[in-house]
Structure formats: C-alpha cells, structure tokens
Amino acid sequence: MIQNPVNPSLKVEDFIRYEFKFPLDLSKREKVESEVANFMSFDGHVHPELSNAYYVRSLYYDNDAATNYYEKIDGVKMRRKFRLRTYGKLIESSLPIYLEEKNRDGDRVHKHRVPIDPSQLPIFYNPEQYPDLHEHFSGVDLVDRFMFDAIRRSLKPRLLVDYVRRPYVSAYDMNFRVTFDSVLMSAEVNNLFPPSSESWKYSFAGFTILEVKFHRRIPAWFHRIIQVHNLRRVSFSKFCKGMEATGQVVDLS
What we know:
This protein is of the alpha+beta class. It contains seven helices and eleven strands.
C-alpha cells in the first residue's frame, strides 16, 4: 500500500498475482465448492443474508471503437483497463468506491486502486471534466495514468457489470484465494448507480465462474480438485461478456 505524501488520506493499494478462471455449471459448482469448503472458509466481508456472498459492481471504460474489448479478443499480451468498483447497488456514505487499474502481462495480473468519494463520481462520468481530477488527486500516479489514457484514447464509462461473489480464503496460505462468481448481469450505462428500471442483460446465464488467485503456486489439494472434476481453464472476461450481451460490439470471428 502506497500513501500519497500530498494527501495522506489517499492510499493506493497494489496487488500482483496470477488469476485462473474455470466455468462451472450448477452441478459441478456444488461439487467443487463442497470440496473447497473442506480446506477454506468465507472471508470476513460476506453477508449472511446473501448466502455468505456479497455484490460486486464495476463500471468499465472503453472508447467508441471498443479498443479494450478487441485487445482482449485479439489476445494482446500486455494490456490494461480502468473501472470504478463498489460492493453495493445503492449509494451510501459507508459504501467503498474505488478507481481501479488492471494490467495484464500474460497470466500475471497487476491491480492498483485508490478510494474515491461519492461526491467525486460525476467527474469520472464526464470526459470533459477529467482534467478536474488534478484538484482532488494531486500526486496520485494512478489517477494521472487514468487521465492520460482516458484523454489520449477517448475513454468513457460504457458498461456496468454486476455479479454475486462467494469468496473463500485459507488460514494456511493467505496468498491463495478462491471465489465463485454467479448471476453475471450487464447494462449499457455511464454511471455506477442507474435507475432500478435500467435494462439488464444476463451475460453468462446458468454458469458460475470459479476464480483462483495466487502469488506463486496452487496448493496440491486444489490441483486434485482440478483433476478429479476435469476443470477446464479458460480465458474469460466479465467485461467482454457484458459488451457482447449488451450489443455494444460486433463479433468479428
């Protein structure tokens, strides 16, 4: 975690790890999760009323040419994208909101994030106001990179993605994390909290995405789960699935 000397309240968090993803139908999800639960427990952010899960909501940026989307589809090895992320469907003073930058170099993922105040959201929604971010985030390299990329590449908020995440952590390996993401939905909007009447589209109906996040290696017991259940690792992007589901891109394959 890096503290900004100009504004000490702004702490940029950095994560470097590998992320593997596996699609699961309902039957396989139940079997795999049952075995994972023998070795891991829920993390401290789950809500019992959501069956020990929590909401994840992301507002993704791209330009009119959908450059970020097609870089992913084309398999560009080194790429990055920006998003606003939060963990609820209604804006509240206690709800954390972040600007995140996600860089990928092959299988290795670098994620950087900085907290933002709800009052600053309108600036992030309007490309004409991006230069005003200097006043609020002086000396924050992450925000400087966002402004540079957003202006140079004409980025704007294009896609809202929602899903339910059930997360598992291990008391024996704090660098190993497993999450089950389901009920993946997307909407073509330019803000984090649109009216409830907004038209949502299912992006991966009937399936759960199992995400495995680690720093160096996967534990032997999880390798066994992969083999026993014949799990198939895939290159999966919630952002790309949402762009396709909302009809914002053309399939060129």
